[in-house]
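Tokens for Interleukin-31 receptor subunit alpha-like. Go.
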Amino acid sequence: MKNSLLAAIFLLATDSCNCLNLDFPLCKQLPDWDNELMCYKEISEDLTCTWLPAPSAPNTVNYTLFLKWERIQKLFKRNTSSPSITIERKDLFMQRSASIWIAVNYAHDSCVKGKNISLTPSKAGKCLTPSNINAHQITNQLKIKWDMPAIPTQYELRYREALTETTQWTLVPIESNAVNITVSNLNATASYIVQFRCIAKDGLHCVCIWSREILVPHKLMSKPRISYNATTEISPGRRSVLLKWEVMQSENILGYYIDVERIPNNCKDSRNRIILKDRNVLLNLSMAYHRVNISAYNNEGESPQTIYIVPDSSATDLPGQINVKPQGTDAVVTWTPEYSPKCFVVDWGTGKEDMRTKIVTTPAGNFTLDNLQPHKLYKIMVHASDVCQCENFTRHEKTFGVTHFYPVEGVPRAGPTNVTILNITKHSALVKWTEIAAEDCLGFLQGYRISYTDSSGKKWLAASVNSSTASYRLTGLKEKTIYRVQISGFTNAGEGLPTLSQPFSTLKYDKGEFEGFMIGIFFSMVFVLVFAHVICSLVFKRLKISCWPSVPNPRNSSAIQDMASTIPMM
């Protein structure tokens, strides 16, 4: 009887360490698995347990939670496929201490277990965490503030980069009764996740649980980069603009602001803002100048803007025709409306940043421009619109017509550039040049004049060509002669300054001509040598016949043959 009682006591004492092995004979302790097992009591008196997934575990894995009550031999266990489980109040002994652990069951009938924790459910309520937490990032620092709970408690903080969940946590101690902390030496281009919890100590009758994850996005420092743009005419006077862009670390971005601004925009406070989640936008615009500002945003604010200027339209099938009659520094603009909108919007200026606008509400299509600069190229656009208040006209206007004019034309103040002489022969040469810059024309360029002088100083006008021509072949030149070429542009007001003279020299022989001449000489010499050899051979033969007649062969003599036949036999 006594031996039986001792055996029972021994089994009871060793049950907590052997029971797992009885149920899972191949289960072993995994020392590297810091599963952060936490169990705490909710308001409903249920016990909730959470833990981190096992390392290197497959996506689908079964967990078993074991609960060993003090002085109770039977194990309590529950299976789950998620890293959390709730034990109902009816299965709890509120005043008894319990040892709790997690086992991971693999498909190949093996398992591992994590570290044990001990608690008493009646003392397992969640400790209070700081409230009103305010965290933000300034360059490479995290600045965090919070309100202290009613009962002062010492806390600790941990953080990691938000880019990936595999990033290791960094633990930061917090001084007692502190209400703010600054974490330095961080990556200024990364966002971070922060958590708080209290530090467990004797007499603290609650469980220290990590708070919810607090995302601290980094301030967006890089502006979006335009990666694609396309402009398409969709109807006379309207066009579509498709823009796509790229950003750095898009995971820290909540969305994008697209501000469409008409140029000029007389109402500076009027802004057409579009908020998007995608990195592309399709706009429907008139032929007026437009500026598109694109920026990213998150909880920390807005990134710098990328500015895209919609390019000039080359549309020629606009519905109307604009006529301009210059009058010195003034100009009268007239047009014939195709229909009667509420108003016309007239834009004019010498460039995108020098545009002015005027709303014309009179039904007659005319407008007078004054204080214009001579020798400046002006662009004028007339748009029809049914909105005439002080706002931008992006959604309402349709371009009626576009034209260009000079209030007063001048002559070009410079000649073309990059004048080169190519393909020089004995009697010709090709002259090429780059057109005169628009700002140097001072009027509508009508064409170019090409002139040249020879070594005697006599000047010749080779030709006048239209403004779209950028090359001309000079012909009728003298061989082996030095020439100098000059080119000038001309407008309706006259001829402008010529280029610096470009010298070149014609060839003495055209390509292949000298080689042909030398080949002819060579063959002539060969012919002479061969002919001389034949002549000399014939002359030598005749001299030989005349001076040295041929001697007959004695063997062929009949006398010798007769003598041979009469010799007696010995």
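Residues 191 and 217 are 4 Å apart (CA to CA).
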